[in-house]
Write a structure and sequence with these properties.
Layout: H1 3-14, E1 19-22, E2 28-32, E3 35-39, H2 45-53, H3 58-65, E4 68-75, E5 79-88, E6 91-97, H4 109-136, E7 141-144, E8 151-154, E9 157-160, H5 169-176, H6 182-191, E10 194-200, E11 204-213, E12 216-224, E13 249-254, H7 261-275, E14 279-284, E15 297-302, H8 310-317, E16 324-327, H9 333-344, E17 348-353, H10 358-367, H11 374-384, E18 385-395, E19 401-409, H12 412-419, H13 426-432, H14 441-450, H15 456-462, H16 466-475
Parallel strand pairs: 13-17, 13-18, 14-15, 14-16, 16-17
Antiparallel strand pairs: 1-2, 1-6, 2-3, 4-5, 5-6, 7-8, 7-12, 8-9, 10-11, 11-12, 18-19
Helix pairs in contact: 3-4, 8-9, 9-11, 11-12, 14-16, 15-16
């Protein structure tokens, strides 16, 4: 540790400072009784990294390489100091927690504090190792349940995480708790489940869900890749990209849980970010893919952190001058209604629903409303709905997964059927509109079979019209 920084620490302790914070491009920040003050000169990332490096223990060095570390270090003249450091976009940020009145703290308590800090650090490190192993196994999800070995989902199948033993309820709670934000801890205590996002530097972001079952605490972590897949590589019809150029309207991406809806939405937003000069607002629970400003200004808001609910954020968005709004999930009647109004008032709105086809998406939206309002909603939907992309993931021949897509555009014929309560006739319009880029799910599944990407048996397990797909395979001379 440099003599300069030791003087800063000593001066901070003498002044009764509780926290000393280091951030690249800023002066040293002292926090005393909630009041912040800057001292010294602006610090570079290299200088902060050098300062932190002088305090790192071997375990803390490993933790910091994974993104975050918290440990205790002895400082001459001050005694034990708790240090928290993390990497943000490759730069080191650090907080030094100082004992305001250390002379009043019994000496016998210091080792206990240090042991508690080391234990939390070890538990966080174990959790990080589980997440890293999940990414290295090319898994989409990590499942942690009490009295069961950690499980991962690879290509749609559940399997044990190699080399990991059974976690007891207490052990599982110990490894989970250090990475849970305080807000999510409070939510979990109140509701017995909670969602939050967690970023591990060098590995990726994770969408996490905590829950309780008969054995105790459990969690599921969904890996969100660092890189957004370009929409051109998703296998969507080229005509879908026209939806990204619309000035207003509603575009929905639908499918069951784990079907890749978030990936498709992120790719569409990234395409807009690359090709338009617009203002994009995303409303998510939690934030999944992180967008950098390219040609667009992108503001990302997380439910529970930056806003109370989807409907509150949507109402506020109307006063925030957006061109494009992404609604992570249209969960309830009020959110759906505000999304429709936003699309009607000159904004392009993207959202998700848990439906398996374009016609069922329309029925799902309309059925959310009371019967005396459904006619009005059908008119609004007929005017606003510009496209539905329904998708599901299929097991790829040779390993991995590939998406099958059903695509519907809000052409006049579709809008007419929506107004007339004839959504069941929409598939025939989609089949006759293939030149426009529309397709039904069976056509997409058959195409994947013909290209050798999935087996006929896999296609038959995914279709909702098994008889129709069998007939199409027979006509194409595909043996099942």
């Amino acid at each position: 540790m440099s003599g300069w920084f030791q003087q800063v620490l000593a001066g901070a302790a003498k002044a009764g400072v509780e926290e000393l914070r280091l951030a690249p491009g800023r002066k040293v920040l002292w926090v005393r009784r909630g009041v912040e003050s800057e001292v010294g000169e602006k610090q570079s990332d290299e200088r902060i990294e050098e300062i932190v490096d002088g305090f790192l223990t071997p375990a803390a060095r490993m933790d910091l390489a994974l993104g975050k570390a918290e440990w205790s270090a002895d400082v001459a003249g001050l005694g034990p100091v708790t240090i928290r450091a993390e990497l943000r976009n490759g730069a080191t940020h650090a907080i030094f927690f100082l004992e305001v009145n250390s002379t009043q703290v019994p000496v016998k308590e210091v080792p206990a504090v240090r042991a508690e800090t080391d234990k939390a650090s070890a538990n966080r490190r174990e959790m990080h190792q589980l997440l890293v192993m999940t990414q290295q196994a090319r898994a989409s999800d990590l499942h942690l349940s009490a009295n069961v070995a950690p499980m991962i989902r690879v290509d749609g199948d559940m399997r044990p995480l190699p080399g990991r033993g059974v976690l007891s309820p207490d052990a599982l709670e110990r490894v989970l708790w250090p990475i849970v934000p305080e807000r999510s801890r409070e939510e979990f205590r109140r509701r017995r489940d909670a969602d939050f996002g967690y970023e591990l530097e060098g590995t990726g972001r994770f969408r996490a869900n905590l829950f309780v079952d008969k054995n105790g605490m459990g969690a599921v972590f969904r890996l969100i890749p660092n890189a957004i897949v370009p929409v051109e590589r998703l296998g969507l019809p080229q005509e879908v990209l026209r939806l990204c150029a619309l000035p207003k309207g509603l575009v929905l991406v639908t499918g069951p849980t784990g079907s890749g809806k978030s990936t498709t939405l992120a790719s569409l937003i990234d395409y807009i970010n690359r090709t338009r000069s617009s203002h994009i607002i995303t409303i998510e629970d939690p934030i999944e893919f992180v967008f950098e400003n390219k040609k667009c200004l992108v503001n990302q808001r997380e439910i529970g952190v930056h806003t109370n609910s989807f409907r509150d954020a949507l109402r506020a968005a109307l006063r925030e001058d957006p061109d494009v709004v992404l609604v992570g999930e249209m969960r309830d009647l009020e959110t759906i209604e505000i999304a429709l109004e936003t699309a009607e008032t000159g904004h392009l709105v993207f959202g998700t629903l848990h439906t398996s086809s374009a016609p069922s998406t329309i029925d799902r939206i309309v059925d959310q409303f009371p019967s005396d309002r459904q006619s009005q909603i059908r008119v609004m939907l007929a005017e606003s709905l510009k496209g539905v992309i329904a998708q599901m993931l299929c097991r790829r021949t040779g390993g991995g997964r590939v998406a099958a897509f059903e695509v519907m555009f809000g052409i006049p014929a579709v809008a007419h059927l929506i107004r007339e309560k004839k959504a069941f006739q929409i598939p025939s319009v989609m089949q006759t509109g293939q030149k426009l880029g529309m397709r039904v799910m069976n056509d997409s599944l058959l195409d994947l079979v013909k290209r050798g990407l999935i087996s006929p048996e896999e296609a038959l397990t995914k279709t909702q019209d098994r008889t129709g797909l069998l007939g199409a395979m027979k006509e194409a001379r595909i043996e099942v």
